[in-house]
Amino acid sequence: MPARKPAQGTNRESELQRFARELGSKRGLDPIPPFQHEWQGAVAESPLARLWSWMCGHTVVQGVRSAYAMRQGRPATLADAAREIPMQRALVGRAWAEGERYGAWRRDEKQRLWLAGDGNMTQIIEAKKRRKIDCTVYLSKTEISTVQSWPKERAAQFFELWDGLQSYRRQLARDAIWRAREASQRIEDTIRGDFGLLKKRFPSERRPVNVPVVLSALIDATVQSTPVRSSIVPASEPATVPSPASLLIQREEQRSSPPTPPLAQGGSQNGRYNRNLERKTSKRLRQIEGVIDRAFQTKGAGS
Predict the structure, then answer these.
(1) Distance from C-alpha of 67 to C-alpha of 73, rounded to nearest angstrom
(2) Distance between CA 194 and CA 184 in Å, rounded?
(3) What is the residue extent of each domain of the chain?
(4) What percent of the residues of the chain are helix, what percent strand, and what percent coil, each to the nearest 5?
(5) Which of 83, 110, 251, 265 has the fewest CB atoms within 10 Å, i.e. is most exposed?
(6) pTM above the 0.90 mark?
(7) Digit-coded pLDDT (tens) for 123-148
């Protein structure tokens, strides 16, 4: 029996058509199985993907069909997202801001979380380009507001230095990862060789760490003002009393560094080497940030 055709002249709006109109979608809706927007919520996914999965689960799913996120009959909040995903509230806020730049969602005056029904790929591409040079990483909203309230010249100078610091930070982290990978691969090759599972490897090129020009003078000043000291203090030289902040940092590093299990052929030495490298890297970054803070405190006092 052939399928029945809808009666002509019927202007009745279907549920999906209504929902597409509320979302602002000009191309209708593409129904997909719930799993296709649930698997991005896994812990291994990025904060942006996990938040997107949560937004879909509170808007487009059958039984909700709301243009803005709903939870138990009320508008959902980012605090709900942080609790249900689960994810740190600060990471949820950053992921939401990133999605806003892409046009994936928006928040209205009532703080409702709206899913975007349509977008512009050019806007997404430009937002991703800006994300690569986003120099507001590691700054709170309060700090960003404070910097933006400064005179334009001073704010621009700060962001230039801060952006250079983030570039330098990423290069140091990349180099540390390269060193750790090289050390672990040597251990892996030993294990593979013992069990006859040798793997052909292609040599990896170590990319150099380039100091941003804007940070050159600061890094030189940091190195000169903080000479490397021996762990043995001569009897004629008074010992330096560590500050409470340095004690807290040292305690946190010891707590976050798990003991290295004994591995084949120098595994313990490689583990100590990697931990020492991470500590030196984090110490260097703290020194640079301290120099930047002192530089702006001095300029602020003089202005």
Answers:
(1) 13
(2) 16
(3) 15-131, 133-200+208-226+264-303
(4) 55, 5, 40
(5) 110
(6) no
(7) 777 766 655 545 556 677 678 888 88
